[in-house]
Amino acid sequence: MQEIIEQSASEILKIYLYSQQQQQQGNSGSSDDAQRSPRKWTPTQAWLLIRLLASTDTLRYNEVLLAIDALKSPNPTPPDAVLQALEQAELITIVAAPNGRPSAVKPGKPVFAPAFRLLRADRVLGARLDALLLAEQVKAETAAIRAAEEELRLLGELGRRSWSGELGARVEYLLKKLQASQAKIERFEREAGVAKGVLTTEY
Fold it and tell me: pLDDT digits over 75-129, tens only?
């Protein structure tokens, strides 16, 4: 059983977590459709799901959508289409409610649950992929800061006398958003520093 789990973990690593080029060159376990067309998900999105499913075998569907959307990956595919693509690629299974509404996300195969935990327990692999995930999160928050700063600049052109009522509330909202995004960036960068420390000290 342990050999089966280890083999499944190795296949997950090659199929879902390597780059698109590596997948096309060395993946014999993926479907023909995945070979012929660009995949609609990124390795960091797949790793996010693996991380979440390593802690619990069942996730709320909408909770996963929010997690993928918050990542703001450069992948333009909408979060629900990302999950559908990962289900087609057999990494996950989407469970529907009695009325047909997607309600939960589970590992694509029973053996994937322990395989996810095995991958998550690999400190070096986790540090490498966590660093990539954190880098995307930093980019997302940086973009949010730039958007808020641009809006503040436009409001500033109206003059401070106009910063009253609804405009004043908007300015306060943007300033709080800037502060929150900056706090997140600082936290992400600290976590990335820890991950990079693992990469430079462990094999």
Answer: 778 999 999 999 999 999 999 999 999 999 999 999 999 999 999 999 999 999 9
Q: How confident is the model over 123-181, as pLDDT tens digits?
A: 999 999 999 999 999 998 999 999 999 999 988 877 666 666 668 888 899 999 999 99
Which residues make beta-bridge pairs with 95? Answer: 104
* CATH number of the domain bearing residue 99: 1.10.10
Distance (Å, rounded) from C-alpha 97 to C-alpha 90? 20
Question: By residue range, what is the domain housing residue 42?
Answer: 2-118
Which residue, of 92, 118, 144, is where some domain finishes?
Answer: 118
